[in-house]
Design goal:
0% strand; globular
Length: 90
Amino acid sequence: MGILAWIVLGLIAGAIAKVIYPGRQGGGILGTMLLGVIGAFIGGSIYSLLVHNSLQIAATSFSIPGIAIAVLGAIIALFIWGALNRRSVV
């Protein structure tokens, strides 16, 4: 997949994940794209693990199922990011 398709997929997946995931997330357009691209890798890897029974670092394709998998991966990435950045108030 070309770099432009990666950017578009990342923007779409990251934006949808930020709308679906509850709470307030920081980051602008660049953070949203990065979140979506990371989500595409997370979702693609989990998909290959479930379907092919082997863990491969793979990304999703630029299609409707690919976007859905990338959005699920981006939601997982948002959850992990939120868990790592929680600050305890004393």
